From TrEMBL:
SUPFAM superfamilies: Acetyl-CoA synthetase-like
A GO MF label: acid-thiol ligase activity
InterPro entries in alphabetical order: AMP-bd_C, AMP-bd_C_sf, AMP-binding_CS, AMP-dep_synth/lig_dom, ANL_N_sf, ATP-dep_AMP-bd_enzyme
Listed NCBIfam families: PRK06187.1
Keywords tagged on the record: Ligase
Pfam family for this entry, one: AMP-binding
Record has Ligase as a keyword: yes
Superkingdom of the organism of origin: Bacteria
Family according to the record: Belongs to the ATP-dependent AMP-binding enzyme family.
Protein name per Swiss-Prot or TrEMBL: Long-chain-fatty-acid--CoA ligase
Lineage, uppermost ranks: Bacteria, Pseudomonadati, Pseudomonadota, Betaproteobacteria, Burkholderiales
Amino acid sequence: MGITQALRRAVQQRPDQVAVRFGDTRRSFKELVERVARLAGALQALGLNAGDRVAILSLNSDRYLEYQMAVLWAGGVLNPCNTRWSTAEIQFSLEDSDTRIMLVDDTFVAAAEVLRTRCACLHEIIYCGHRAAPSAMHDYEGLIARHEAVADALRGGDDLAGIFYTGGTTGFPKGVMLSHDNLLASALGVASEGIAPEGAIYLHAAPMFHLADLGIAMAHWLAGSCHVVIPAFTPEAVLQSIATDRVSHTLLVPTMIQMLIDAPAMKQACDLSSLQFVGYGASPISEALLVRAMAALPGVDFFQAYGMTELAPVATVLQARHHVLVRGRPGNKIRSAGRPINTVEVRVVDEHGNEVRRGTVGEVIVRGPNVMLGYWKNPAQTAAVLRDGWMHTGDCAYMDEDGFIFVVDRLKDMIITGGENVYSSEVEQVLGSHPAVAVCAVIGIPSPEWGETVHAVVVLKVGQQVAPELLIHHCKRHIAGYKCPRSVCFTDALPVSGAGKILKSVLREPYWNSGGRQVA
């Protein structure tokens, strides 16, 4: 089974139903499939062979949806670029994956011109914006108009569907290889939870390069839902789209939820009567924020999806029926990440891989058809996390007697800020390159706005002085802004274990006083 089967089924059963809405654009499934098949033909004419990678660097749009399906229809492999990355980070992902074709919109034309000069592998750039195409770039609509529709390549099963780059603990992003079966197994598990019912209207408000959006959207493709797209999240755009497009379902990261319910527009008269489900995921959410959101959106069902890119991406779901308040306070289950979806098996194990007793903290491991094929060109890191058929997540949690997972900490030193993963070792390498820094440690500290923010604890070299702002500026020259420390403090020495390992739990302790949790 392949991902494009969802399109073929939809055009067979509901050809005239609206499939996509973007601004004033409305397209039926029949029109969408015709455009997808023509774009696939254009990609093949540009030299795309089976298994070749095609990137996109773009804000959300209807053309982003067409890219996702057309690349697979043509037999290619997706490589969606993180729009928040620096040019150097995007360059690495293109060169590492040997990406030969890239789509780019108006926002990133200048970056694409730079990447063209730096990446020898990048042979063709398709302009998918809404102005005149720059010279030396192919015009998106022109390609569709000039090329005939081609038959679906019918790739599926274990065939590679996408390489999704995520922050790397070695200072470079890791390419997570996901097959058609991986993505479909996650989507089918999500669909079985009732999250994507027939007739839904799903709003793409989260960035479409993020697998959190694609993972939930895949369930809606299977259900034949209508897909509504806004270029980027703003509270006003979301509220307007709900009212105008009669949106019933959406996925928001917790930061977006907070911005939405605190927006002045929420205090004005706005028609949210169509909204039925709000999913959240990609980063932890505080109980206080969740309670406020439930109060601000009465009658709307909330659900949580927990997972990671390597799991395509969903492992567990906390259903709406478990989002309950007891005497005005969150019920016990609302504190959890839910239970495994139907296609997935989850265990909590000790350092030897043995399952621990219920209520005992250990590492979350996952087995199922959603588990990634591995890391692109990185067998050593693949072997480190895929052992005996189980994906070792690096998340520390316990399971209660009812099978609910409660995440309490991370074995990996990963920070999740505003829905984006930040690996502390990557930031530490950049900070450590400053001539005044002797040693440093980067941790996540609580933030009401972002869930967590990046904080650096620095030991300076003897006789050196430097302002925190200069260290932050140094980081911004080398890595994406969201990865850079928001705050810096100085100390004479870092706490270390008997083996000489920096004790980040000690550094985090003053900032996390919730009693047992060191994540948001």
